Each structure stands twice: as structure tokens, then as C-alpha cells.
């Protein structure tokens, strides 16, 4: 008996509100298909901002800031699919989501791209403006991490002003439901491919690390330099 698919949602909202309601709707859609659905609320983790070290483009090892980001990254790597969900704040992604993208991406994910070929979905929540811009930003982040991005036909953008308004946006919630179902469909197809072939969807190993000035091979990229303590 195969294990149920695991979806992990990253909630970039600073408070419990419309984005939380949308993810609860997404969770219900996932569970209808027998998939697990967990949420990481970034407001509840310890997350430092990127520090003044400035060596991210030359560092051959993960970030050393002591917080909960590496644990969230491990949970992402263990999941079959990941939802990135953020409200629009100040015409852009909420600050917690932006900080997480920077810390996780620059500090951990860029070394061997462990999210490659995992299924990704994006949800943005807005009063009216910039829902598409934030959706596009999170979409670009998923593509940077070489994930398999699926859509819902129309982007899964939900419009809300006051608490509870997201649950009144029937069109937006319909697109969220479609997104979750398509994510599960794609994850099942990829799992079947792996079962039948014993292989992942291939990415050339020499293409793992695209940073200028560092070794392209994943093993070389993650190994400490000679003599390092």
C-alpha cells in the first residue's frame, strides 16, 4: 500500500486571516483526494533576516544563522508538493514570505536544488490590487527551484478585504480547488513514473549549481573548502 501524498503549504501571512481561510479550503480539497496537507505558518517560526555577512554568492555551505528555516526546508524536501501562499502587502508579497524566499533560497536551496521536480502551486490573496504580481513573483521562485509548476486555468488569486471575505470569493476558491486537484494529479503521475522506471525526471547533475564562480557539480558545491573548520 502506497503512502498518501504529502502537500506542504507555506503561509506567508503575518496573522490569522483570509490566507489561513484559503489554506483551510485547500486542505479540505486535498483531503477529499486522500492527500495529507500541512501548513507552515511563517509567523510562528523563528526566522532571522539575511545578515550582514554578504558571502552568499561564494559560500560553499548552507547558511549558519541559528533559526527554524533549515527545519522548514527539510519539511519541504520531504513533501511531494508545495503550496506557496501569501497575501498582498504594500503591492508586494508579505514581508515574511519575502524573507523566507531569501533565507531558504540563498541559504539552503541553491546548493543542490532539492526541490527539483517537486510539484508547486501558488496562491495569492489580495483586496484588489497586485494579486497577479505577487502570484507571478511566487511562480518565478518555484521555477527558479526547478519545480514542476501546475496551474488552475486562471491563477489561484483570491480577493478579500475584511476577515472572512475570502470565503465569499467563490471564483477564487474554485481556482484554489482546481489547483490542489491538479497538483495531486501531477504528483501521482510523477510518482508512477518513478515507480515504473526507477528514475526521477532527469536533470543533468552538472547543472545543479548555477552560481558564478563556484563549482557546478553538486558534491563540489556543498563540500567545505580545504582547511575549513
TrEMBL record:
Keyword Ribosomal protein: no
Chain ranges of the NADPH-dependent FMN reductase-like domain: 6-157
Pfam families: FMN_red
Superkingdom of the source species: Bacteria
Keywords, comma-separated and alphabetical: Flavoprotein, FMN
InterPro entries cross-referenced by the UniProt entry: Flavoprotein-like_sf (IPR029039), FMN_Rdtase-like_dom (IPR005025), ISF_SsuE-like (IPR051796)
Name used for this protein in its record: Flavodoxin family protein
